[in-house]
Prior knowledge:
About 80% of the residues lie in helices and about 0% in strands. By secondary structure, the chain is mainly α.
Amino acid sequence: MAVGSSLGGGSRKTWKSILSKKITNSSCGGQQQAARKAQQMVGMGLGAAGAQLPTRLNAVVSVVNAAGTAVAVAAGEEGGKYFRFGPQAAGMVFLYLSFGEANSWREGEESPLGELAQAGQELSLALPMTLDNLAGGAAGGLDGIQSWQAGLGSLVTCFAQMRLGFICGCVLPGGGRGHGQLVASGLFALLGTACVLNCS
């Protein structure tokens, strides 16, 4: 009886461990998908607003994003506690960008996103995107991913997704001209709301 009880307890622990790992893997995958969607939407917003996406801007955003991901992975579960409000903080910045686009469209002014092509303005986009990616990086650390692997993967993915989103944004109805700023404002508003609710 004691042996059976011991085996039963061990079996329960094994199944609990497997279930916990599956939940972690699912969470990690979901947060990584959310980060990719955010990168696409940011690029799309730039294209829709008629702004530029020079290689320098894309590279700086991608490098900062990769560094944040690597730090979050290295921090693991303990560090992840400090990053849990990252998406909400990112969402507030995206909502601010949305307001700026809508206001400039209403006033008939140039898109504020156009200034991002200037040197020194890259962090305006890099910061919120990195904050949004921190939670996914922490989850990746729980899944056994090495920090350098996560950082390199994030670098390549972010660069590609931003460029792809930008191309799509340029061909959106109204994108790049006319009501492009309003389209960009809507995209950033959608992204910001999803981040604040942490459901992107």
